[in-house]
Amino acid sequence: MSVAHTRVAVIGGGVVGCAVAHALARRAVEAVLLEVEDALALGASGANSGILHTGFDSTPGELETTLVLRSALLREQLLGELGVRVVRCGASLMPQGEDERAAVGGIAERARSNGVVTQLREDGSLTVPGEAVTDPVAFVHALAGAARAGGAELRLGAQVGGLSGAPGGGLIVRLQTGEQLQVRAAVNCAGLFADEVARLAGEDLVRIYPRKGEFLVFSPPAGEMLERILLPVPSALGKGVLVFPTVDGEIVAGPTAREREDKHDWSVEPDARELILARARRMYPALEDAREVGAYAGLRPAGREANYVIEPSRTLPGLVHVAAIRSTGLSASLGIAEHVVGMLAAQGTIDPGPPRPLPAPAPATSTERWWQRAALHRELAGRGQAPI
Ligand SMILES: Cc1cc2nc3c(=O)[nH]c(=O)nc-3n(C[C@H](O)[C@H](O)[C@H](O)COP(=O)(O)OP(=O)(O)OC[C@H]3O[C@@H](n4cnc5c(N)ncnc54)[C@H](O)[C@@H]3O)c2cc1C
Hints:
Layout: E1 3-11, H1 15-26, E2 31-35, E3 51-52, H2 63-82, E4 86-87, E5 91-93, H3 97-114, E6 119-120, E7 126-128, E8 132-134, H4 136-149, E9 153-156, E10 160-165, E11 171-175, E12 180-188, H5 194-200, E13 208-219, E14 229-231, E15 242-245, E16 251-254, E17 258-259, H6 272-283, E18 291-303, E19 309-312, E20 319-323, H7 329-347, H8 370-380
Parallel strand pairs: 1-2, 1-12, 2-9, 5-14, 12-20
Antiparallel strand pairs: 3-8, 4-8, 5-7, 6-7, 10-11, 11-12, 13-16, 13-17, 13-18, 15-16, 19-20
Helix pairs in contact: 1-4, 1-7, 2-7
Bound molecules: flavin-adenine dinucleotide.
């Protein structure tokens, strides 16, 4: 049985794991990223709305808000360096009726507390110029590519199946193949399966369940361009269905929010179309004439009564959990990664150097739209064939 020595193992090749590997490589800390699938970003990170949130509507003071706001500061320069496409289209909320108008006023207040620029207009609408859309799959690949260029090792098809303390200190990470890695530290970024990875260390972390979000993709009607993200006024039931442009010029409506149990069910359910269209057409009537070109679903890694669980393991020193990153992980990933590197440094398990620029990875050559990959994932789900 081979035993390799690497400093930090990052478990999970979604946006959070890749951002952590990138942040480690940027500070010259040796890392190995372990992803069970044959490709990166096949979980929530490749099947979301692709919106880079400013944090305008986040609850002030929460960890999630702090990390979304921090990420917004970090990503401007980094995404440029990495060559990731971003459309800074802004977003708007248009209230219907007095109750919604009051709710929008409250959101504008929240944005002020969070230091995010918004414009509240006479008609009660709110615009948020800093909201943007990106290609979330390219985002993940760019982080991973730069991490690799900075010395990180990326291992696909590598399922972590065991975690324990190493005799002389540090951890042993066991792969399903039987291979063992001896590391100083490990970061659990396993998304929907973060609770199961914690269980490998004998720990009962918050239970993670899939909160399914379905989307419909449209080719814009002739002569119509959707210029910004259209947001509904949030209610007690959640953020609701939005309508937004993609970096490639399509229009997407969604997501739904359904509490589910099956972590492998990526299907778009039969009533999704009706649920989405009823709300989306109210915000964007031109959708009536748009041609539907695809549909996909994502599974949010939601925690039971917990959100943004970022903490050291209670059973295994050197292990850090990054779990229940439910709805804003794409936006917060750079802030999360910086936070995790700070935790590892404070524990004395790593000695990070000053941040250094990493070479930009070669641009992706695929002509496939990112959401097509998510749609394919749905078709192949349950058949044991993950798309590359
Ligand atoms: C419908 C929907 C809409 C969303 N919209 C937005 C948005 O607009 N903006 C935004 O910021 N966020 C959005 N999000 C949230 C965002 O997508 C998530 O917060 C983020 O993707 C979580 O990333 P992750 O890396 O934690 O998880 P994942 O992307 O799920 O990655 C976890 C990885 O771990 C791997 N893994 C699991 N177990 C093991 C193991 N034992 N060994 C090795 N690897 C393992 C998995 O294969 C997976 O690749 C949305 C999410 C959904 C579903």
